[in-house]
Amino acid sequence: MSKARTAIITGSTSGIGLAIARALAAEGCKVVLNSFTDGDDDRGLANSIAKEFGTEAAYIRADMASGRECRALVEDAARRFGSVDILVNNAGIQHVAPVEDFPPEKWDAILAINLSSAFHTTAAAIPHMKRESRGRIVNIASAHGLRASPFKSAYVAAKHGVVGFTKTVALELAEEHITCNAVCPGYVLTSLVEAQIPDQMKAHGMDRETVIRQVMLAKQPTREFATVEQIAATVVFLCSDAAAQITGTTLSVDGGWTAE
Ligand code: NAD
After folding, report:
1. Mean of all residue pLDDT scores within the chain
2. Known catalytic residue: 187?
3. Strand ranges (E), the chain
4. What's this model's pTM, rounded to 2 decimal places?
5. Which one of the listed residues 81, 155, 187, 225 is annotated catalytic?
6. Closest ligand 1 atom, CA of 185?
7. If you take atom 44 of ligand 1, which residue's CA is the nearest one?
8. Which residues lie below 8 Å from residue 52, measured CB to CB, with a gap of 6+?
9. Are 20 and 9 in contact (CB under 8 A)?
10. How far is the CA of 192 from the centre of ligand 1 (A)?
11. Residue-level pLDDT at 192
């Protein structure tokens, strides 16, 4: 990568987002970490990344459920680091229930955090990217942006929305040297997935390994989780010069899930 770029990664204090922040820092980017909490641990994480990779890093608290805070995150990052060159919309939550029992407040939260946040951050980042005449927007969608599963109505709706939003933004920015793509991971063993294992063990009367292989990875032909590092490396690629003509598309990292 050329001169130091500033990257904002939403929802980046754990899991895939943290791995993306680390990988972009390793490439020399200044990174902005984000979550909705405001603890010493959060700031400590940014400090340790700055030290480990010899770059600048900041933690900015913003709740991705709030459009106003999404936009403030981008403006705050631009003020601190002078530009916004890479935006990774990663924050996401999950809730699993049949449609008729799905709590409306969970539906609203999932749509806000997993979909609308990307609209607000992207809208705020575009003027900064246009000013530099360069930019990379990467949305972390999901295999559930391309395929459905029962009991995940809000998540599937939001992730399909992210894929549609990605294509639209790509078309609007096609002549601005700004690309917009979505990465679609299959199952990655993070806290979001880990939290589902005990319920699945109970529901199926299975031990942990059997649940992982026969229930969770049933749709993933490789029968292996993707790793956070593999997702992060895919984002780094999409942010590279080699990917300048890749825009408005999805890149699946799903062990073959969506080939079926
Ligand atoms: P995770 O729970 O480890 O990370 C989610 C991150 O989002 C956390 O850092 C959390 O603090 C943050 N977050 C949650 N609510 C927020 C809010 N209101 N405001 C700001 N930040 C908030 O989960 P993960 O698996 O790393 O998920 C990251 C992204 O990858 C999500 O969009 C998820 O849908 C997507 N994804 C995950 C998998 C998987 O198998 N783990 C598969 C496909 C897609």
Report:
1. 96
2. no
3. 6-9, 30-35, 57-61, 86-89, 135-140, 178-185, 250-253
4. 0.97
5. 155
6. 43
7. 142
8. 22, 25
9. yes
10. 7
11. 82
